[in-house]
Specification:
It is a single chain. The protein has one domain (about 15-90). Strands 1, 2, 3, 4, 5 and 6 form a 6-stranded antiparallel β-sheet that branches. By secondary structure, it is mostly beta strands. The chain is built from 1 helix and 6 strands. A hairpin with a 2-residue loop joins strand 5 and strand 6 (about 90).
Length: about 90
C-alpha cells in the first residue's frame, strides 16, 4: 500500500505574496534554482517555519525553497517559494 503525505494547518499569519520579476530572478543568480523560484513571501519573523512547511493562500500552494532572516534582526522573514498548481510544478 502506498503512503500518502498529509498536511495539517498550524497557524494563520499576515504576509505579502508577490511574483518575482525577471530582474529579481537574474539577481538571484546561482544562489537559488531560478527555474523553479516563482514568488517571494514577506512576513513577520517566526522560528516556527522551515523548508518542510508550505504556504496556503486562497487555494494556492507555495513550497518554501529559501528562508532569509532579513538583516538577521529576527523581525522579518523573506521566503523564496515555488507555486504549485494542480499538484505540479509551475513552468
Amino acid at each position: 500500500m502506498e503512503s500518502v503525505a498529509t498536511w495539517t494547518p498550524t497557524e494563520k499569519r499576515w504576509a505579502q505574496i508577490r511574483p518575482l520579476s525577471a530582474r529579481e530572478l537574474l539577481l538571484l543568480g546561482d544562489s537559488q534554482n531560478i527555474e523553479e523560484v516563482t514568488h517571494t513571501i514577506t512576513m513577520n519573523f517566526t522560528k516556527n517555519i522551515s523548508h518542510k512547511d508550505r504556504i496556503l493562500y486562497h487555494g494556492r500552494t507555495f513550497e518554501i525553497s529559501g528562508i532569509i532572516n532579513v538583516g538577521e534582526l529576527d523581525r522579518e522573514l523573506q521566503l523564496t517559494c515555488i507555486e504549485r498548481i494542480g499538484g505540479v510544478w509551475q513552468d
